[in-house]
Fold this protein.
Amino acid sequence: MMIYTASKAMQYLSIPVFTIFKNVTIILIAYGEVIWFGGSVNSMTLFSFFLIVLSSVVAAWSDISIAKSAAAELGEMAADAGFNIGYFWMASNCLSNAGFILFMRKRIKQTKFSDLDTMFYNNLLSIPVLLLGSIIFEDWSAENVLRNFPVDSRNTVFSLMVISGLLSLGISYTSGWCVRVTSSTTYSMVGALNKLPVAVSGLIFFDTPVTFQSVTAIFLGFVSGIVYAVAKVRQQKQREPTLPK
């Protein structure tokens, strides 16, 4: 459900808006850990969450303004329809994303799954859900298949799909490992922070415009990672038993 609702949300919402809500999911996961695993969320951790969300908002602000202008040109009725259905899929993705990560951590603890087991069952269980969603909601007419898989580039498209699938196995394996040895919240925070090196590389290597907003967003993201790391170190020190003198 996490994979399918993400693809549907991105169909109606811009990438910056999508990223903002994905980062808000970190807060849901953090409080889910408090309820299920006896975790704790202190003021410094909350501040790091605020910074990463603020970083996304700053980065997305100009894109959101452009999207609003484009939506206004299409007409209020069409814009409202896209807005409503897009945010429905986004809310579904946030809930399914938080549920997936928390349930995965709970299942790993209960069954003592290895990282390979976690990868195998996650991918196996996703197949019927994605297949059913595709059959029910997607257009499988001959015209649409030909449009998405044109004859002149079909082999290239299939090859890239295979490569992407193989790389996703690595993502699935390392995700299970990260959740097992750290926490669901740390895993989600790392997932939000790993966009920062990509953003920096875009500024350096791909002629992405260097603006005040982009630099500020990257800076806020790095600061949020530092604040979160300090908060986790302090929590760890508080849990360590003090030896008698």
User: Anything to note?
Assistant: The radius of gyration is 21 Å. The first helix runs from residue 2 to 12.
